[in-house]
From TrEMBL:
Gene3D superfamilies to which the protein is assigned, alphabetical: Leucine-rich Repeat Variant (1.25.10.10)
Ranges of Basic and acidic residues composition bias in the record: 461-470
InterPro entries noted in UniProt: ARM-like, ARM-type_fold, PBS_lyase_HEAT
Molecular function terms from GO: oxidoreductase activity
Skewed-composition ranges (Acidic residues): 1-27, 58-70, 78-93
Protein known as: HEAT repeat domain-containing protein
UniProt region (Disordered), positions on chain: 1-43, 58-101, 461-480
Length: 480
């Protein structure tokens, strides 16, 4: 073997051996030489010799020799005068291509034969650390992971100490010490599970110590193999540890306490019975858990209805985020819930749907929700829906007027008064009268009271109520 020397030098040594050197020695050490007459046959014979040399390689230096010989072979193939394939014949022989394919296969063989290296160990440990950090473990799974990591760290630290005693000391962290430290520097009774961040920190420290040790693929082959075996055991233990995704839905719910609210008597199904109890207790997180976990239309409907009944009691950052996500898909039940929650966070999204003239049912839900939220930003868009010449469905306009009344913003007085005076629909006029009474300023009430004797019963009823409110001493309208 050339042990990394130039193949040409190896060839010269072979020639010298042929000229009288020791025959046995030349058989063991002489490298194959590129044929002077480079033909398909001679080049294949040359590659056969390189393949034999690859099979016999035992060290990285041996593989370096093979790599150099393959470089020599690639150059010889490129320079050789070989027949070119007939471009019009798909099945024509391609000697040069076949030889180049053999070189590529032998290069792959060299790559496969190299190592393993210390870097391979570090990469495997870092991958295991990522698995520990990124996986959602059950309580039992976490315990198994902690035990597996602890065992691995002990075994790896011993192996590193035996081969490179200073590696752990010179690395930034001692992996065993990291596992021994209580979380947040607080004393524990030994029964508390080791937090994930400590487990990953210990694994990262092992990887850093391996890199610091600088293990040689030849000289330290045994310790590298031992560390890789330990890493394989760790990966197998992580594969076996219980994840949340491994559990059936009811097991996940049970583990998270969803059924804990149930007594001895249970309605059917038990998930619904538990949901009703969580609603009564205001357990928003549990309702969200059921909504996320129970993939049935029945439970989805009942979870959403629970939120709608709870109204503001069901409003949390997490519940608004969940329901708003559904509302952004024009889901009407979700829009109704946002209104009941008085979720100001939904205003921008809902205002975008005010002009959805092609979807009257969506508009009705949106208008009411904006009114219940008290969304001042929606006053003008809603007022625009009162225009009798607009594209809004006639049955939707009363809902726009009522939403303005729920918002209670005095900017709506003029457009509502205009609708009350001139809109051709009595339903719209009555809704405008109702809305003005909800706003409740003297100006608003006076605008409605004028129609107490209106021929339309629904309009005159609003006028009479406004007149009574004025008689009872309504506050004067603010002056400009």
């Amino acid at each position: 073997m050339s042990n990394g020397d130039d193949p040409a030098d190896a060839s010269e040594e072979a020639e010298a051996a042929d000229d009288g050197g020791d025959a046995d020695e030349s058989t063991e050490t002489a490298a194959p030489t590129l044929p002077d007459d480079a033909t398909e046959e001679s080049l294949n014979e040359y590659l056969d010799e390189i393949a034999d040399r690859l099979e016999a390689a035992e060290t990285e230096a041996d593989l370096d020799d093979v790599e150099a010989l393959l470089d020599d072979a690639a150059a010889g193939i490129e320079e050789a005068d070989l027949p070119e394939p007939d471009e019009d014949d798909e099945d024509a022989d391609d000697p040069r291509g076949d030889l180049e394919d053999r070189v590529a296969e032998l290069r792959d063989g060299v790559a496969d034969a190299r190592g393993p290296y210390g870097e391979d160990v570090a990469d495997a440990v870092e991958a295991a650390s990522g698995t520990v950090a990124d996986t959602e473990w059950t309580e039992a799974g976490h315990d198994d992971v902690a035990a597996a990591v602890t065992s691995f760290v002990d075994e790896a630290a011993d192996a590193i100490d035996d081969a490179a005693p200073d590696a752990i000391d010179e690395a930034e962290e001692d992996p065993e010490a990291l596992l021994a430290e209580p979380a947040d520097d607080e004393a524990t009774d030994g029964a508390e599970p080791i937090p994930v961040d400590q487990l990953t920190a210990a694994l990262d420290a092992v990887a850093a110590a391996v890199v610091e040790a600088g293990f040689d693929a030849d000289d330290d082959a045994d310790v590298i193999a031992a560390l890789l075996a330990a890493t394989d055991d760790l990966e197998a233990a992580l594969d076996d540890a219980e994840e949340w995704d491994d559990l059936e839905t009811h097991e996940q719910l049970r583990a998270q306490g969803y059924y804990d609210v149930l007594g001895h008597y249970k309605d059917f199904p038990v998930e619904w019975a538990a949901l009703k109890e969580h609603e009564a207790r205001g357990n928003v997180d549990m309702i969200l858990l059921a909504l996320d976990s129970l993939q049935s239309e029945f439970m989805e409907r009942h979870c959403l209805e629970a939120f709608e009944r709870m109204g503001k009691r069901g409003k949390t950052e997490a519940s608004v985020e969940e329901i708003l996500g559904r509302a952004e898909k024009r889901d009407r039940p979700a829009i109704r819930i946002l209104g009941k929650m008085a979720a100001e966070e939904a205003t921008d999204t809902l205002v975008e749907y005010v002009d959805e003239d092609s979807n009257p049912q969506l508009q009705k839900a949106v208008f009411k929700a904006l009114g219940e939220i008290g969304a001042a930003e929606a006053v003008q868009p809603l007022a625009n829906q009162l225009d009798p010449d607009g594209d809004t469905d006639e049955l939707v306009r009363p809902h726009a007027a009522r939403a303005l009344g729920l918002i209670g913003d005095t900017r709506a007085v003029d457009p509502l008064a205009d609708a009350l005076e001139a809109h051709p629909s009595d339903d719209v006029r009555a809704a405008a009268g109702w809305a003005l009474r909800q706003i409740g300023t003297r100006e608003a009430l006076e605008a409605v009271a004028e129609y107490a004797d209106e021929r339309s019963f629904v309009v005159s009823t609003e006028g009479e109520k406004a007149r009574d409110a004025l008689d009872d001493g309504a506050e004067p309208a603010p002056t400009a």
